[in-house]
Amino acid sequence: MTRLTILEYPDPRLRTRAAPVDRVDAPVCELVDDLFETMYGANGIGLAATQVNVHRRVLVTDVSGERSDPRVFINPEILARDGTATSQEGCLSVPGYFDDIERAERIRVRALGRDGAPFEEDLSGLLAICVQHEIDHLDGRLFVDYLSDLKRQRVRSRLEKDRRQRAEDQTTARARAPAI
Ligand code: NI
Asked: Which residues have a beta carbon within 5 Å of ligand 1, which is an ion?
């Protein structure tokens, strides 16, 4: 298993619409395993393949908080939505930013599992929110797209500033490192 690099907003590759998976074969299973490794390594509760620059319709979740409920959704489709719920969301591709987003409270989803078998399931609570958020990624959409233009611009400026700061810190650390 490999921990992959997560793309960060406003990387244009996050806007790619992912293509359906034709067959759940060994490379797809390997992608699923890498997604879990990457998601757990970053302390996330969900990750879509788009976020690691693989544009296939695969997403994983684990909303248990203790790595005990790993879920795989390949070619996920939302068949029905019911109710609305507002909750605070964050995203591994938008580090350090959280905001209230309104989504369907309950969804019925159809997908393929890691074994390639189709299933349908009614989801609610955090898992329903998470799967909607991750399917948005597969369609090239981010949770910040639901914010006002002004707010989204602020998030973008802040992330760019953080990235510059991290780059400067790395340069300073290198300058201080002993030469051998
Ligand atoms: Ni996300």
From this structure: 91
